[in-house]
Amino acid sequence: MDWDKLVQLIVNGLTLGGVYALVALGFSMVYGILKLLNLAHGDVVMVGAFIGWGVLGWLGGAQDPAVAVWLLITLMVLAAMVGCGFIGVAIERFAYRPLRRAPRIAPLISALGVSFFIQNSVLLLFGANFRSYESFDLVDVGIGISWGPLNVWILRVVVFVSALAMMLGLWLLVTRTKLGKAMRATAFDREAAAMMGIDVDRVIVRTFFIGSALAGAAGVLIGLVFGSINHFMGFGYGLKGFTAAVVGGIGSIPGAMLGGLLIGLAEALSVGYIEDVTGRIADLTGGRFPRLGSQFSDLVVFLILIGFMLLRPQGILGKREVKKV
Amino acid sequence: MSEAPSGPRIGVDEWVASAEERRQKTLSARAERAFERVPPAAKLALLAIPFALYPFLVEDPYLMQVGINTLIFVLLALGLNVAVGWVGLLDLGYVAFFGLGAYLYAAVASDYAGRHWDGALAIPAIAVTVAVAGFLLGLPSRRLVGDYLAIVTLFFLQLFLVILINSTFTRGPNGISDIRPLTLLGREITSLDGYYWTALVALVTVVVVLYLVNQSRTGRAWRALREDELAAELMTMPVNRLKLMAFAFGASIAGVAGAIYAPAQGAIFPASFDLILLITVYAMLVLGGAGSLLGATVGAVIISASLEALRDPEDASWLVYIAVVLVLLVLIKPWWRGLAVLGATAALGLLVHEAAERWWPSLVEGTTFGQARIDRLVDGWVLMPADFVTEEGLPAGAAARITYLLFVASVLALTLIRSSLWRTVAFVPVLYLAAVVWQNLMLPQPAVARFILMGALLVALMAYRPQGLFGKARVEIV
């Protein structure tokens, strides 16, 4: 057993999981309140990554930053959060609010249109080339935590810790503030909440702002750790974010965190081991089963999703909903 | 003895009934009633005649190819209509079934696979296999609401593409290129005309089958399910079985379309079955009107033809300007106000262009990418800043990108204006900005611009006319 590899994969998985959890949170919050699958959420992540990239270029680029590196990263994340927050609000206002009373399928189709519009707008404005954050120039790979077999690049630590910090902040917001109470009330029963004097529309707008801001932050973190971004990246991250939210229990904040980490770990481990495992199975069975490369890690995530749908459709922490008539 | 019913009528929601009554008086409702009186066979003939005439009017092989693709698109839209339009299930993995059909055809009739099945055997076999695949995919999400189905199917599409791209037996991104021509009962089809007729025969068959299914017990059950799942279940309808059936049925139509597409193209690639195709087919269905066979057909033809025209820089500008003028005249009432807006926009443009020429000449020194006559015509009207776009047609700097964002924001803001007079006035600068964005930023990249327009079309349709061109407006019963 190669322990170094395992440790490294777990570190990768946790980083990836932190990002997925952030994406899953925004998705889960919106679903909790509107019972709406925001299919454009992944593209908000992508826009966040591009905003971060724009700020990086504007402040001198990775080789020659005009300000201290920590400040630069903070500014990138903040700009992406604010920008994406407003994009989220615009999406809600123009694509979903007119359809609040429409059949369930209508906002989903509208979301497809929004997603396609955003993707192709970015393609029009920035072209199809991959863009790089050049984070290796920004923060040297040698800098980091090193303890036994553990060698972690500091940027990975930053990503994981800031993802956790944002989740904690969101948790406090939802459980301790007046807005959080209003959000929970709206999620529980929108009409009753409106009758209790809660401005439901305002709560929904703020939910979209917060969820999309988290997605924007996730976009910058992705750019920092995984390097390159392009107009199509939102699809994959959105999909994994949805999966994480479903696995963790849709509508539940701790569930989204757990689901994100689980999916991140599952993906990292299957990237690392799927070749060995399927190779060994192929050897044992005389080549009856195919050998799969690391590109097939999505297969494992998909099987986890299917497994949860069959065995525990409400997710790890979700509550089984009883349909009321 | 006719007694006017007093009090609430049983089984009729009053609000819905009054909405329906008001709708019956409109012109479109009258046209619809007249259309409903036409016997179905005549309707089918009316629908088929333009398609049947097409090959006689067109000589150009490229246009013939476009015709075949359009027929495939119509088949796809009709298949998607079963799940989305009739039952109300959001199937986001739909094009994977199309791809599955195409790759299955390659597996039974290509030099690569070393087999050559007859089409009369291959197509039904593929239809059944793909239907089974659809059934299996629908199984895990059977207990759940539509949203979960959307995630599972979207993920399935992603996985399908991953497998196609990374597997050796599908030859990865290079695709399979030595597909044998379709053989029907021993006769090999080699000409484009032959494929066109094959696709048309398949289309007519599918339309007849769909019509009969829609009139049947199952069809009624599907529609009941869409309107109110719970009520349908209480009426002892087997909800899950019906959903899976619709799902598998739609998938098998996509499979047939794939089995015709593969030999007609001669080569298939994973990139042909991606998200772009999915959204295109959705746009077709929504534009035409989900739930209507005629709507799905017309929507597919319109979108397919527009996408084709927008690809060509010779036609793109014409199409866009004509579409904008038509939409304006329909949208702004009364009609003379629409004309006034157009006139004012033209005047504004001349004014702005004149002012720019005098004081900021760099704003008009750019060169146009357009090749049509209309592009040279608007050159003296629309601002063309120098160095706005690079030679490849990408925006050169922040100014160009900000112009685009400003345009999007102004269109969104326009929809927020309540007063119809001010909205009409606001149309003028927005239209001019639209012309600037189109000529400077979108025309250099028509392939991308057409997808932006399609995405915007989907959102706008859902917000303003969710029933599309031919669908029936549905009143949601709360």
Compressed to H and E, one letter per element, the order of chain B equals: HHHHHEEHHEEHHHHHHHHHHHH
Tell how many strands the DSSP assignment of chain B holds: 4
Percent strand of chain B equals: under 5%
C-alpha-based Rg of chain A, rounded: 20 Å
- Uncertain parts of chain A: none
> What's the multimeric state?
heterodimer
For the record, the count of structural domains of chain A works out to: 1
The biggest sheet of chain B, with number of strands, parallel, antiparallel or mixed sense and barrel status, is: 2 strands, antiparallel
Q: Which word captures the global form of chain B?
A: globular
Helix content of chain B: over 70%
Q: In DSSP terms, counting alpha (H) and pi (I) runs of 4 or more, how many helices of chain B?
A: 19
Q: Number of DSSP helices of chain A?
A: 12
Largest sheet of chain A: 2 strands, antiparallel
| Biggest sheet strand line-up of chain B | 1-2
Distance between the termini of chain A: 55 Å
Strands side by side in the biggest sheet of chain A: 1-4
Structural class of chain B, by secondary structure, is mainly alpha
Number of structurally distinct domains of chain B: 2
Question: What order do the SSEs of chain A take from the amino end to the carboxyl end, as H and E?
Answer: HHHHEHEEHHHHEHHH
What's the end-to-end separation of chain B, in Å?
Answer: 36 Å
Q: Uncertain segments of chain B of ≥5 residues (pLDDT<50)?
A: none
